[in-house]
Amino acid sequence: MSEQNLPQGVPLRLYGRRRGHPLRPRQQRLLAETLPRLRLRREEIPALPRPLWLEVGFGGGEHTLAQIAAHPGVTYLASEVFENGLCSLLSALVPEGGEATAPLPATLRLWPEDARSLLAALPEGALERLFLLFPDPWPKARHAKRRFVHPAMLPVVARVLAPGGIWRIATDDPTYQEWLRETFAAQPFFAPHAFHAARPEGWPPTRYEAKALREGRRPLYWEWRRL
Predict the structure, then answer these.
(1) Which of 30, 155, 173, 226 has a C-alpha 20 to 30 A away from that of 92?
(2) Calpha distance 6→67 (Å, rounded)
(3) Which residues are within 8 A (CB) of 213 and not within 5 positions of it... i.e. 6 or more apart?
């Protein structure tokens, strides 16, 4: 499956920001020298070692770093288009001055592009776990089609998530929480696996969760199992 073969209704245009504040020299070096060393190339995809996990939109990278440390036997794919987020993760991996030479985790591969194109390129049943933590809620009704969780995206995820595989989703946005309930209520691909009103053990924290709690919003945590 290629991007051209994504189901009708899956938006191909990327709406999220790619850059925030202007990049500092250290950040520019990380993108120019460190990112290419971890970047997943399309020709590598068929031979990726299993088990294979994917995080969509890793933000500042806290969850990614915790997972690769806790699960050294897993090949971890992490997707993020926001350059400042990429720099946050990369800066935690290499010391200043070691952008081109410092050792990097052998099990981590980065995809600095739209995650939907990666899902389209992965083999059927390739993933054991998928993580979507605090995605942009696109709260306006007319922007609902931009949400990663969307009726048109469910078969795309279902194709690459192996039977019994787990999709974890967390959000603090009430609109997105209700959208999740509605979207997963009538579909044939996923069954409820677990629901948590507080972050459970094994879910590393993120800065977005911390911000939500500081500002009085209540995150909710779902796990869905591929049928």
Answers:
(1) 173
(2) 29
(3) 219
The model's pLDDT over 14-40, given as tens digits with 9 standing for 90+, comes to 555 566 678 999 999 999 999 999 999
pTM of the model: 0.92
Rounded CA-CA distance 154/142 in Å is: 19
Catalytic residue list contains 172: no
The CATH T-level fold of domain 29-226 is: Rossmann fold (3.40.50)
Token pair for residue 139?
């709260």
* Domain residue limits, the chain: 29-226
Return the biggest CA–CA distance within the chain.
52
pLDDT in tens, 138-156: 677 676 677 899 999 999 9
Q: Which residue shows structure tokens 């209704």?
A: 9
95's tokens? 């010391």
Tokens found for residue 193: 């696996």
With contact defined as beta carbons under 8 Å apart, do 4 and 104 qualify? Answer: no
Calpha distance 115→151 (Å, rounded) = 16
Q: Which of 114, 136, 172, 173 is catalytic?
A: 136
Where is 157: in which H helix or E strand? helix 154-160
